[in-house]
Amino acid sequence: MPSYKAPTRDTRFIINEVLKLEGYGNLPGFANVTPDIVDAVIEESGKFAAEVLAPLNASGDAEGCTRAADGSVTTPQGFKAAHGQFREAGWGTLSAPEEFGGQGMPHVLGFALEEYMSAANQAFAMYPGLTNGAVSALLAKGSPELQAKYLPKMIANEWLGTMNLTEPQCGTDLGLIRTKAEPQADGSFAVTGTKIFISAGEHDLTDNIIHLVLARLPDAPGGTKGISLFVVPKFLVGDDGSLGARNAVSCGAIEHKMGIHGNATCVMNYDGATGWLVGEENKGLAAMFIMMNAARLGVGIQGLAQAEAAYQNGAQYARERRQGRALTGPAEPGAPADTLLVHPDVRRMLMDAKAFTEGMRALALWCGLLVDVAHQAPSEEERDAADDLVGLLTPVIKGYGTDRGFATAVDMQQIWGGHGYIVENGMEQFVRDARIAMIYEGANGVQAMDLVGRKLALKGGRAIQAFFALVDAECASAKENEKLADVATRIEKANGELKAATMWFLQNAMANPNNAGAGATPYMQLTGIVALGLMWLRMAKASTESLAAGTSDTAFYEAKLTTARYFAERYAPDAGALRRKIEAGAEALMALPAEAFETA
Q1: 167, 194 in Cβ contact below 8 A?
Q2: Residues with pLDDT less than 50, the chain
Q3: 114, 202, 358, 441: which one is catalytic?
Q4: What is the distance between the alpha carbons of residues 270 and 557, in angstroms, rounded to a whole number?
Q5: What is the C-alpha separation between 421 and 547, in angstroms, rounded?
Q6: Any idea what the Cα angle at residue 3 is, between residues 369 and 368, rounded to 5°?
Q7: In a 10 Å sphere around its CB, with 0-12 CB exposed, 13-18 middle and 19+ buried, how is residue 71 labelled?
Q8: pLDDT tens track for 409-460
Q9: Is residue 99 flagged as an active site residue?
Q10: Average per-residue pLDDT for the chain
Q11: Are 523 and 505 a contacting pair, CB within 8 Å?
């Protein structure tokens, strides 16, 4: 059976020594978050994930969810009790606003909790996780009446939420949705249609489920301009908060999936269900993107989480499994064979995993801090600058984070050899669960096009220019330190490749938009490398400072410096190849006629 231990030491290092959370005490929600409170949240959430959720991961995968004839859904054994513990401990309220019963703590701590839960049991973590996106949309676009009626119960996790976007005839292209919303005399709407791939669409964890549903009004224009957003509860809610009649919404089926079996991915049928408009008519797309962006960051964290869980088990197996001898001669002559750790190719996979997971954790937590700054900073300039970076990094965290997360899970399965293919050992579940993250909440090719097609040009390219300047400034500063100079030089070069690729797009994408499409995925990967390089530079700097101060935890910081060097030597050089792929353009990629893809 696989095991999981929350990487609390690494999280504390990033939050306390790299991000230096104490320096943000002027922001609302930060003043009372002392190092002791930060440590307590990190340790206790890690303990909950490892001791309560992780033991249910394999069993939940094997059992899956069950749909009864009446459309009700039962989650795997242990999930309901675990959700009760989650709710009673107040984990769902951690970063939610105090106005609606939340604790108002920084999002950066909420991101750490998300990682631990998703690594321990991704299928379970999705139930409360999806609620966060629905809450974000209601906070931004919901009327005071809707907020008062739904948010306190959702934030307390007494009710959970969903996002109902996709339909059978449309995936990413939401302009094709057909679900209708007919105005009613009392101001409500009758919602009719079918939604598919709805995670946590029906379950037995809570008494009510609050669906946020995209639909069209009768006179709505076609395409994305005619989309509105509605809140549709499973049970109608009285003015006093009590539950009333069952609404006309039901689970028609549970999808049979490759992974995340413990989460009920449902076909949802709306048969004139009563709903209420969220925000303005025909402005549902803006509200939907609030949900989607929150979800995309969460999915990026899932990529990190599955990589971390797989890495822990791959590293443990490599330390224990004996196979063959070291190329330089027996490492342990008295043993029948050396451990897998002596083999350079096994080390390659482990170091790739370590460099990615630790770098991605730093990037995700930094983005969580930027979310806080974007919401709470005293000046508009600071808020806008942070928001620019969050917008730029969101498709990178989702796309690059899940691409590399899946690749890491596959590598860790590879370390186990044939045993990694056996269900009981758990490695194949990490691979299956990680795979979905590259697809849902906008497939990764869509993330790449969002980055290239929207985020680069937004506000005159302000975000990418700020990112370039930030990386260059930190590289220039680090090069003054002999211990950091080589890493900084290599990251600076990678940033130069990213600048050149960006300029190529500016010169070539307008004349032929396919050039942008053809280069979008390598550009996203290139941006991911530079972003993780910035994180490794920051972690290396913090490590040299701790070593110079005479820390007793020398091994931890020396390992950070070695891994930073590895990242710079092994990841950063890919930047040049990715730039050359981008500059190849779209001509050969788009040249063949459709019939050339038929097998003769």
Answers
A1: yes
A2: none
A3: 441
A4: 55
A5: 42
A6: 5
A7: middle
A8: 999 999 999 999 999 999 999 999 999 999 998 999 999 999 999 999 999 9
A9: no
A10: 96
A11: yes
